[in-house]
């Protein structure tokens, strides 16, 4: 890009999306803005112009730039590499960050010029300096400390169509579930962002719905739980009136006084990693906390959370090594009968960097290995490995039956009314309902008629 003296350089940020999800109508309430790119923009000095192409909303068209930066999950990384190729062919350097590139930097470096491994704070500034002096390195990373600071993301760059904002208050997770890469990406140590910094940002968000993206908002230690308590209290004391959704383990229901504070501070929905209603499934996935508490206590967990006006997204995994065909139907029957409000029924997906990926690779059981093209299929609604007790084809066909069981129109509306009754909170029920519609669209939207935003009866 030819520059006149004094003209600003241009940083182009791109949020690529997965090919499979491209044609599925999304509810804007269920989409999360590209927070990492917003942070990168905030870390960039003022002598740069910044633009964002967000494939959740924008059709990609080539724009001139001096430097291009993308962030991608595994399922979107092939698209990231494709776009990177367009810019590199014109001699424009491309940087890739996000969980996939952090797990597989060697692969990423075949398609991009530099990889940010882990978080951008503390490295992005160095990367820009190196770019300006023509000495861009291939990888950038830093050792993460217990406390982390993050600038307020440049939300002005995000598309106005997003139905909620997002924010991060902690990083890391003390658990080590077999299928999960976030504890490897963000580290096993539970790391905190100072509460006043979080509250300042929270207060400034001009959206009344917020997704707190922390992998596990409570953690399990006395300190981390107390820190969550102080965060909820801080939101209340500052008079911040927003509805928010978060992710946690089932110990979220342990302390009723904490639940009351979460609710008073705006918590309307929580995603809980349930994974399986069978002990064998919990052993296999290393879901230690669920195992320790016992599956017979799930109902009590959901009931306590409901009592405080909060709905429950229950994340389940289908296709574990211990799963027979009957077990998969039993899992759906559990979802139907349980007081879980939003069903998440993902097919086991070995994401790079996880123990599961390494195990299936060693056992020769990965079946979608034409990388990077096959990363397109690693989105949790496809079978990319050989299951232990059935063929890949059988698992896929059984899953379609199961998805029909848990996301049929009648059940989704019945669950909405049940959630409304059990939580007594319209937002909690609406979010649960939207969640089911979104998952239906993802799982079955290409085979059945997908729901569109304007078809949602209970929008409000
Ligand atoms: S508790 Fe959640 S975030 Fe933590 S390792 Fe398990 S699945 Fe990952």
Q: Could you characterize the architecture of this molecule?
A:
The protein has 460 residues and is an alpha/beta fold. It has 2 domains: 9-140, Rossmann fold (3-Layer(aba) Sandwich), CATH 3.40.50.2300; 164-455, tm_1862 like domain (pyruvate-formate lyase- activating enzyme, Alpha-Beta Horseshoe), CATH 3.80.30.20. It is 37% helix and 15% strand. The protein has 17 helices and 14 strands. It has helices at residues 35-43, 77-88, 99-103, 105-108, 124-132, 182-185, 195-204, 222-237, 256-264, 279-285, 288-293, 298-307, 325-337, 355-362, 392-406, 409-423, 426-444; strands at residues 9-15, 48-54, 67-71, 94-97, 114-116, 139-140, 165-167, 170-171, 191-192, 209-212, 243-248, 267-275, 311-318, 342-347. Strands 2-1-3-4-5-6 form a 6-stranded parallel β-sheet, sandwiched between helices. Strands 7-10-11-12-13-14 form a 6-stranded parallel β-sheet. Bound molecules: iron/sulfur cluster (SF4). Iron/sulfur cluster (SF4) binds at residues 173, 175-177, 180, 182-183, 215-216, 249, 273.
* Beta strands, count: 14
**Class derived from helix and strand content:** alpha/beta
Strand content: 5-15%
Low-confidence stretches: none
Using only C-alpha atoms, the radius of gyration works out to 22 Å
Query: Can you identify the CATH superfamily of the largest domain?
Result: tm_1862 like domain
Using the coordinates above, name the CATH class of the largest domain: Alpha Beta
Largest beta sheet, briefly? 6 strands, parallel
Distance between the termini: 46 Å
CATH architecture of the largest domain: Alpha-Beta Horseshoe
Overall, the morphology is: globular
